[in-house]
Amino acid sequence: MEAALGTVRKQPASEAVGRDASLSEGKVSTSQHDFTSSCSPSFSSSLGSVSSLLSRCRTFKVLVIGDSGVGKTCLTHRLCAGEFPRRTEATIGVDFRERALDIDKEKIKVRVGPFLFAHHLYGKHPCDGLRSLPLWRFTYAALFLIGNKSDLRDASRADSQVSQELAMDFAKAHGMVFFETSAKNPPRKRVHGRRGDVEPLQQSKVEDIVTAVGTTLKRHKSPLTAYSPTYSGRTQQPRNKNNVLKTCWCV
Ligand SMILES: Nc1nc2c(ncn2[C@@H]2O[C@H](COP(=O)(O)OP(=O)(O)OP(=O)(O)O)[C@@H](O)[C@H]2O)c(=O)[nH]1
Question: Where is the composition biased (Polar residues) (predicted)?
Fold first, then answer.
């Protein structure tokens, strides 16, 4: 279920494709009420409140930040529900989804939402999207850089794409953990480039990203906010009729 926090929600996708077989419905919490009630045993009221304190799940907010069209909403769907939405609409405000995780025997909840960069931050070159990301790092504690749309990677268009090398350097410089994946067609297992490739192509399963985010968050004693910025390797090109970006690779 989506929880909109004082914002206009996107219309939920009517259909979804490519659902992760590994993600059971039960892993996605349907609402805070459902989730906490399943955690709290029914003791007497005083014992019950102590018990519910002990068993209360910590909830962490994860903001997925990036330029318009980089795939924040699709990535959020994929991370939380294991599916790629067939139809999305432009993000207005923040549209949260929840997912329950079991990390080293502790249950935590991550509340993930796409968040749009302000338009005036956009530039014309794909790398401009990267330049605006550091503005956010002062507000949040755990940082992940996710290169999305790896399925559109095209060696013949290298000049309009953000190279993995650049992305990794950027992530390192700003203390971020870097992943590359595709919300639409994520690799089933971690993919390594062949020896002799121009760049060391590596793609991660979405579940690896979820686990890494959950593990990082769990280490923190008190809830904090993490964000997973996406960055755009696309040029300012119009979408085609099917609302799919034609030529760009977006990471
Ligand atoms: N090929 C491919 N297309 C993708 C992928 N992720 C998203 N898309 C497409 O990219 C377009 C934009 O996706 P959204 O998730 O709506 O992007 P957004 O960043 O939320 O966009 P705004 O709401 O405008 O901020 C849609 O047409 C998606 O189908 C991906 O991994 N691969």
Answer: 27-36
Domain spans of the chain, in order of start: 55-126+142-153+163-188+203-220+243-250
Task: Give the global pTM.
Answer: 0.65
For a mutational test of ligand 1's pocket, the pick from 157, 232, 243, 245, i.e. the residue with the most ligand atoms closer than 8 A to its C-beta, is: 245
Contacts of 205-211 with CB under 8 Å at 24 or more apart are 205/181, 206/20, 206/78, 206/79, 206/82, 206/181, 207/20, 207/22, 207/23, 208/179, 209/79, 209/144, 209/146, 209/179, 209/181, 210/79, 210/99, 210/101, 210/110, 211/101, 211/103
**Mean pLDDT for all residues in the chain:** 63
Q: Which residue has the tokens 């686990």?
A: 211
CA of 52 relative to ligand 1 center, distance in Å: 39
Q: Which of 86, 87, 64, 67 is nearest to 75 (CA)?
A: 64
Distance CA 65, CA 56 (A): 28
What is the C-alpha end-to-end distance of the chain, expressed in Å? 27
Considering the domain 55-126+142-153+163-188+203-220+243-250, what is its CATH architecture?
3-Layer(aba) Sandwich (3.40)
The two beta strands, 96-103 and 2-3, are antiparallel
Pairing of strands 58-66, 106-116: parallel
- What is the Cα Rg of the chain in Å? 19
Query: How far apart are the CA of 109 and the centre of ligand 1, in A?
Result: 24
Is the CB of residue 203 below 6 angstroms from any atom belonging to ligand 1? Answer: no
Query: Nearest-CA neighbor of 198 among 163, 150, 157, 172?
Result: 163
